[in-house]
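My current task is to audit a protein record that another person submitted. Alongside the sequence sits a line of tokens, each denoting a local backbone shape. Please read both lines and tell me whether the tokens look consistent with the sequence. Do not assume that whoever made the record got everything right. Thanks in advance; the entry in question is below.
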Amino acid sequence: MRRTLVRLGRACWLVFLAYLLIDLATGRLPWLGGWLPIGAALASQLAAALVGRRDERPDAAPRTVRPPVTGTWSALNSPADRVPSHGTRAYGQSHAIDVVAEVGPGAPGPPRPGFGWWPPARRNAAFPGFDAPLRAVADGVVVRATDRQRDHLSRNSWPALPYLLAEGVLRDLFGARRVIGNHLVLDLGGGTYALYAHLRRGSLAVRPGDRVRAGQLVARCGNTGNSSEPHLHFQLMDHPVPDVASGLPFRWAGVGVPAAGTWFTVPADDAEPADAGTPAPEAGAGGEAPPGQR
């Protein structure tokens, strides 16, 4: 039911866009007719949201899994600060988190570019997170895996922000696949699924049906879908299809759930993560969280 309502809502918005384009080209369509698909789209989205709230499990205990990254990272849009963490429960992301790779003090290389006015866009190689390895958070089975979408330039600047927001609206019309970009879904058992989003094109190390072990390399961090810069969007959910999934709480072993702006370090070996909870430096040493990051 929820998936049908979501698809109906998208179809109605597409009908409205088609109606608008025809009216602009001909000037002969009644203006009132455009409100019919708008009303149907809003009603479908509201019904889908109500169905989704009914299916949520607010009393679910957080599941402890391994961190999906190694090295030094910082958190954005964290469920430690608010739920839903991204301002919406769509696509099962009520408890989702975004993490970006950072260059720690004394480490080689320039810091992660911060959000600012110039340049409007950067190549992905300017960000330390691009191509970073991503690991399986637990033993599981790959149920969804796609990496054919291209990695686009960054949008982490004020001039690019309007483009990012408009692009996000258009991507949403074409479904979750365009929003989350290249992605991977692991079945962790017990009705729990892990989603990795915005993966680098061609970086998947697994395919549907593969069994993976905790800590195994599964993909690499990229900048696909509705993304302002290379980063990992991670979440647990109760269904393998984001359109109908509800988000589930999680915690990372040795890290917990880092709040937005918090830096944490996960060693590359099997040692427990360290330095969780270290406040982020000022913007000059990594920058503030870019608005609109997903």
Observations:
- The chain has two domains: 2-55, 63-285.
